[in-house]
Design goal:
Blueprint: H1 4-11, E1 29-32, E2 35-38, H2 61-83, E3 89-100, H3 108-123, E4 130-136, E5 145-153
Length: 156
């Protein structure tokens, strides 16, 4: 199924990856009423993390911002796996991002801008959302960034 969102992705030179398989006992995304909630999405590319480590130590803020963008693409793929058509997104309601941070790193919001900017570029006004950017000690597989999203659908 190809719609306006798929066309926008193509225009931006992007394509949705395959849904990242769960690393434990959960689903990549679930629908409840008119909302879809994704699990935390790591910046997996072709089944592996391109970079590991803490942001502000082994990973630069710019690298992490790009990884957050990958997380957002993975989250959109998870949403599409549940609803079939990204044109059903009425809006992105909330984005929560976790940044594995060196003890003195305080640039979590800038890192998460990678995800927020991608959602805005792909979905326009529908991609504008509330957000939390949280620094943490460590993430699964030593990933630098993890992002989850909540979207509202146009109809159930």
């Amino acid at each position: 199924m190809s719609g306006a969102v798929d066309a926008k992705l193509a225009e931006l030179g992007l394509s949705l990856p395959d849904v990242v398989p769960p690393l434990a006992a959960y689903q990549p995304a679930v629908q409840s009423g008119v909302y879809v909630y994704t699990a935390g999405q790591l910046p997996m590319v072709d089944g592996k993390l391109p970079v590991t480590g803490k942001v502000g130590a082994e990973v630069t803020a710019e690298e992490a911002k790009e990884l957050a963008r990958t997380c957002a693409l993975n989250a959109l793929a998870a949403v599409k796996s549940v609803v079939g058509d990204l044109d059903r997104i009425a809006r992105v309601v909330k984005v929560v991002g976790f940044v594995a941070s060196a003890s003195d790193f305080t640039g979590q919001p800038g890192v998460l801008n990678g995800a927020s900017e991608l959602l805005g570029a792909v979905l326009g006004d529908k991609g504008v959302h509330a957000r939390s950017a949280v620094g943490v000690a460590v993430l699964p597989l030593d990933a630098p960034v993890e992002v989850e999203i909540q979207v509202e659908l146009t109809h159930a």
